Amino acid sequence: MYYMLRQVKTENGWVRGIPAADPRITAFKGIPFAAPPVGDLRWKAPQPAKNWDGVLECYQFGPMAMQAPIKADPNALYDREWHVDPDHPMSEDCLQLNIWTNAKTGDEKMPVMVWIFGGGLMSGYPSEMEFDGERIARRGVILVTVNYRLNVFGFLCHPEITAENPEKPANFGHLDQQAGILWVKRNIAAFGGDPDNITVFGQSAGGGSTMSQVASPTNKGMFQKAILHSSGGVFPPSSFGLKLADAEQQGIRFFDALGVKTLEEARKLDAKKVYEVSANRALYYWGTIIGDNFMPDYPVNFFKNNTRNNIPIMAGNTADEFAVIPKGDTLEELEQYAKSTFGDKAQEYLSLIKKGSSTIEEMKAKGTYNSFELGDVLMLDYNSANKTSDAYYYIFDPEIPGWDNPGSFHSSDLWFAFETLAKCWRPFTGKHYDLARQMCNYWTNFAKTGNPNGLDADGTPMPEWKAYTSDQRGAMRFGDTPEMIGPNEDGVFNFLRNGYMNGEIGDSLSSFAYRANVGPWAKKES
Prior knowledge:
Blueprint: E1 7-10, E2 13-16, E3 18-19, E4 26-32, E5 55-57, H1 77-81, E6 96-101, E7 110-116, H2 134-138, E8 142-146, H3 151-155, H4 159-164, H5 172-187, E9 193-203, H6 205-215, E10 225-229, E11 242-243, H7 244-258, H8 263-268, H9 271-278, E12 289-290, H10 299-304, E13 313-318, E14 323-324, H11 331-342, H12 346-354, H13 360-367, E15 369-370, H14 371-385, E16 391-396, H15 414-417, H16 430-449, E17 475-478, E18 482-485, H17 491-501, H18 511-516
Parallel strand pairs: 2-5, 7-8, 7-9, 9-10, 10-13, 11-12, 13-16, 16-17
Antiparallel strand pairs: 1-2, 3-4, 4-6, 6-8, 14-15, 17-18
Helix pairs in contact: 11-12, 12-13, 14-17
């Protein structure tokens, strides 16, 4: 008889899953992996979940963490793309995870992928429709998606919080992610997974979070591989983090704005009020904090200094995200921009953008670059220079259909990596479905073995994806079809890459944040 694994015993009690659209796959939704971070547990590291009696029916996703309500605005790109349900529940009680498995017993030792969603550490949720795990599970890989605290709830610091728990005074959102991974390591065998073959992956702030998890010295041996979608590499979010002492001072100012004097009073306030006061991005930075045990230094420095957890990584970016455009509408303004940005190297930069240009617009076009591509390449260059573990680089650049003509925008790769195109409103055609199938193959192959290469569904080999090394700095370009391409030979791009690698145009922890003009928290390191 053909059985499905519908009921599983976890460390806290029994859970019952629900058949996915493909009934050979079981989805377990809303499993608590930590105690609700409410009341006295607000702004504390995640605590163990309590046991329950009977069988917990895990048929529905848990609520999203506190954040701005979903507007489902059809005129806004990301609302149109997937934030379509304004009635999605929201709560501080958000520390649940979701599992898709096609295991039939708890003895199968399937590889496991743990997903960390993006949203600037300010918004997002694991139940976004593009993160459906059915296509991954169909390939014999278990998918787990983890929720975590965001914005002020995940990243507030305050002297009282530090005094209360000096060992874990900050980065509660990252600690939630870590607690989810640890729960997987302890429990996934019962779902048919291999606790010693875990790949952590994420996109945007989820990619930056994955980079932070790879970097953190508290994660040694916890997982075996990582995939970083549009993490920014050595650039944001790893370059924007406040130092703990500065974050504590921000917390004092925030308590003043709340009208409270103590941590006890702040914990009693309504969550909605706390969020509304915190949402002024011009006044407050909520994100990765530098200087606690979890993140004692900027994530990039762990790559730069060869002290990160030594595991295989895949990293990449979309072709049309976060362009840095030179500031200035006259030659004089461009020259001033070059001097303030590149110092002694300004003339070299100007000669590159002037060569062959007859207008200011052409000069600015030559000086424009994809910041996340540069950040990824620098991260991989550090990895190669240190002869660390295998790394693979990709650029996502297919034709994306739709009346909005969006290009390969930030996050557009998500439909493809999860092979969930059928859930999207866009008029995808056969070539898109072929690309999504192959990308999902590459991703799950990497999760299985640490090497993305393998056979397509018809048994033919997919295009070979070569590792990124000092001698082979190419990328797998996901255009209409996958193909290996050589390194970016653009003059300005290589000027920047070489300048950063040689320390000639500033360090990647400060100068990018300044040039991006991201806000008052982007203070230059002394």
